Amino acid sequence: MRSIRPVQKVVDAFEALPGIGPKSAQRLAYYLLNVPQEKLTKFAQALENLKKDTRLCAICFNVGEEEFCPVCQDETRDRTQVCVVETSLDLLAFERADGFKGVYHVLGGAVAPLAGIGPNDLRIPQLTARVKAGEIKEIILATNPNMEGEATAMYITERIKEMGLMKNLKITRIGRGLPTGADIEYADGQTLTRALEGRGEM
Length: 202
Known about the structure:
The protein has helices at residues 5-15, 22-33, 37-52, 70-73, 88-97, 124-132, 147-162, 189-197; strands at 55-56, 63-64, 78-85, 102-106, 138-141, 170-173. It is globular. By secondary structure, the chain is α/β, with parallel strands linked by helices.
């Protein structure tokens, strides 16, 4: 059957999004066909204004509505402790956990040579500039525990050392290991090793 062009355009648009396959894209497009026009217009306007009404924080590059994001505006946060994350979604995950009281730095991704992303494509110079300012006492590297995340964490550490910025500065890596509720018997060797390495005092 020949595809209906207006519908196919929407299907193609959805399919271009991460995590949405052809069937999900079709389902969403046909769902929107049954939505009242008023709701559809509101949805389209929200999408259209998504980039217009948001901006990146001038300090940490988190997504916000003003020059500085809500975290950087919060005067109760510990500015001596900076948690370095790959994306604003990672930052949101830490904020939901509600245990971190420092500030953040959003890199905008991770070093991934196969995807053509090198250190110069990330906000590493902006991070080193913040370290140079002298207020930061600890950098917590919270990049993902995969090859790209590890490479990014190692690069940042080496870059800061090369620049001679280690005086009065501590660089730490988030502990990795067993998730809460997991059974040790089902864990792989690397996970158990990381769990031991990332152990804390009781």
